[in-house]
Design brief:
Strand 8, helix 11 and strand 9 form a beta-alpha-beta unit. By secondary structure, the chain is of the alpha+beta class.
Length: 624
């Protein structure tokens, strides 16, 4: 059941009147129709709360238990008053109130070999996405932006498609029209054009700041923050398929997906301590990480405080080492932000003696076992620094093993290139001395620090160059790498080493956000060849991540720590389909219904508070 609004103009006064009705969708021989259950007069309730009111009314009429919480007590009272004060049509309400006894139900003998299942569409993951959609108030936000019913439905399809069947917008259209029961949900239009999906994505990106701001305000009411509000900032990129010649955002740069052969687009994201997105920004693919920080902090302040006066104590910002340059740290301190950053690799050298000789004095802060039973202990030590800063020296056994394994597999790239050059000389592919010398100089410039440790000389035999010889310089002293060591720097001098370490570890949530967007939400690759469409694609991913983060947060609060990918796999087998059958007397029936959830699926549905949106319908096809 849902609430329908109608408007009509008085012929006498010319005044526009608004009337609301509780209706339900039914199947008839002429197709789907709406049946009026009761007239509600004119509601003053905001549209965003209509679905809750419709649920409360349905429970009052049918005698079911309401799923609304204590915060919806006003809606429950309104539903009770509406049902009590209106004269309901007995013909319409009686089938809802009276559950026929088994002896009174119509009976027919079904031919077992005639039973068939067909037209099965996914509905399991859709139920969770719909609940998150309602929880975050997406429809109310879009309505305020004057996006019509079709636009709201297409937005829902775009976001749910990214959640359930990640891919391009074209892939989402195919999923929505052919594999999802979402289009059968009550209140959604039945006709969609292909271009409407692309147009709606463009409209959403046009209203990007307003949508993100409204979502942020709604999410602050739902999710509580930790005692020290911390915002996590990072930047990633994704690659485009094609050359992107007409795409102003497409630029070559350092690709985190190792696709150096393709142009890139960059995305920066700020999330809160619950992992919920706060603001995002799309940049050209060659955007430097440090250069984005100041812009995003200004956007964060605008989102947090708007036109209000910015407080003296600002939130804490956690950043990864790629963004934590000296200039960025100075900017944060100058502008009154607290910060937690990890120093770059050379930051450990300053404390090499402590890491090597005083490690037994470090405090054990985390003790875990790896999947093979190995120790993954983490040890920390707080070291005060002049200038109102503090640093936490950290040593992780698990991180040390990982770094040593990577180093063992990694070969010296400079030595490898010299060997390749020698092979070319031996084969005779390169003969001229000038060409060989030029190649050697380019390799030395390419490898910089590594090449500086070697003396490279051209070997000549009887006037003919036979190769290049490398000799390590005698004054070069190789230091053992500080595997597993890192240094956290913060302006929070009052906090303990353990508290600072735990605050920094929350940065994994923004890394998890990027991982979810790339792997679970189909952010990469980008197939669009224009800047606007590419930006729209990335923004759809960010909006879908709002739903994903909300679902994971709610389930985590209720003891279920599985990721969305795992939840989606469990729910994917729940289908809405048609069961066709014939009776002994020759009549044929189609029953459109949702399958019974498995125990695991029902557990997830109960924890998240979702419920099925589709009622079973029985259609008599013929009567021979």
């Amino acid at each position: 059941m849902f609430i329908h609004e109608t408007k009509f103009t008085s012929k006498k006064t010319g005044k526009v009147h608004v009337q609301h009705k509780l209706v339900e969708s039914i199947r008839t021989e002429k197709g789907p129709r709406h049946r009026v259950i009761m007239c509600l007069g004119t509601l003053t309730l905001p549209r965003i709360q209509w679905k809750r009111l419709a649920h409360a009314l349905e429970c009052q009429i049918t005698g079911q238990q309401s799923l609304l919480g204590a915060h919806d007590a006003d809606i429950e009272r309104l539903a009770l008053n509406l049902v009590s004060n209106h004269e309901l049509s007995k013909a319409r309400i009686k089938p809802l109130l009276d559950t026929p006894k088994s002896s009174d139900r119509p009976k027919a003998t079904i031919l077992l070999d005639s039973i068939r299942k067909r037209d099965e569409l996914g509905i399991g993951a859709e139920l969770l996405c719909m609940k998150a959609w309602e929880m975050l108030g997406f429809e109310g936000i879009l309505r305020k932006l004057r996006i019509n019913t079709v636009g709201v439905a297409v937005t829902m399809a775009l976001l749910f498609g990214r959640m359930i069947s990640p891919g391009s917008e074209r892939h989402t259209i195919e999923w929505f029209l052919e594999r999802s029961a979402l289009k059968e949900f009550p209140g959604l239009p039945t006709k969609y054009s292909k271009n409407k999906f692309y147009e709606t994505a463009d409209v959403l990106y046009k209203h990007k700041d307003k949508i993100e701001d409204a979502l942020f305000q709604n999410e602050r009411k739902i999710f509580l923050h930790s005692e020290a509000t911390i915002f996590l900032y990072d930047l990633t990129n994704t690659y485009l398929e094609g050359h992107g010649l007409n795409n102003a955002l497409a630029e070559r740069g350092h690709c985190k997906s190792k696709r150096y052969d393709l142009p890139l687009i960059a995305l920066s994201l700020v999330v809160d301590d619950n992992g919920m997105p706060v603001c995002s920004q799309i940049y050209k693919g060659n955007q430097s990480e440090p250069e984005t920080m100041e812009t995003m902090m200004k956007r964060l302040s605008a989102r947090l405080y708007g036109d209000q006066q910015i407080p003296m104590v600002k939130p804490t910002v956690a950043m990864d080492r790629g963004i934590a340059t000296d200039d960025n740290v100075k900017w944060l301190r100058k502008n009154g932000y607290h910060y937690i950053v990890i120093k770059r690799e050379d930051g450990c050298e300053e404390y090499r003696n402590l890491f090597e000789t005083e490690r037994d004095t470090f405090e054990l802060v985390s003790s875990k076992k790896g999947i093979y039973g190995e120790d993954n202990n983490v040890y920390i030590h707080k070291e005060p620094v002049d200038g109102g800063m503090t640093r936490v020296l950290c040593f992780s056994e698990g991180k040390a093993r990982k770094e040593m394994a990577i180093a063992a597999r990694k070969k010296n790239p400079f030595v490898g290139d010299i060997k390749s050059l020698n092979r070319s000389i031996k084969k005779g592919s390169i003969k001229k001395a000038g060409t060989i010398q030029g190649k050697l100089e380019r390799l030395i410039n390419k490898h910089g620090k590594i090449a500086a440790k070697y003396e490279a000389s051209v070997v000549t035999v009887e006037g003919k160059i036979t190769g290049v010889m490398l000799t390590k310089k005698p004054d070069v002293v190789e230091k053992d790498p500080l595997y597993g060591c890192y240094v956290i720097e913060s302006s929070h001098t009052e906090l303990s080493a353990e508290r600072l370490w735990k605050l920094y570890m929350t940065l994994s949530r923004v890394e998890s956000a990027f991982r979810s967007m790339k792997e679970a939400l189909g952010m990469r690759p980008v197939y669009h060849q224009t800047a606007d469409r590419s930006a729209s694609h990335l923004f759809i991913t960010v909006l879908a991540y709002h739903l994903l983060a909300a679902i994971e947060n709610i389930l985590t609060q209720r003891g279920d720590t599985r990721t969305w990918g795992t939840i989606r796999n469990v729910m994917s087998t729940l289908q809405h389909g048609t069961v066709s059958m014939q009776t002994e007397d020759g009549a044929s029936y189609d029953v459109r219904m949702t399958a019974v959830p498995t125990a695991k699926q029902q557990d997830i549905i109960d924890k998240f508070g979702a419920r099925c949106k589709l009622d079973a319908t029985i259609t008599k096809i013929n009567d021979l």
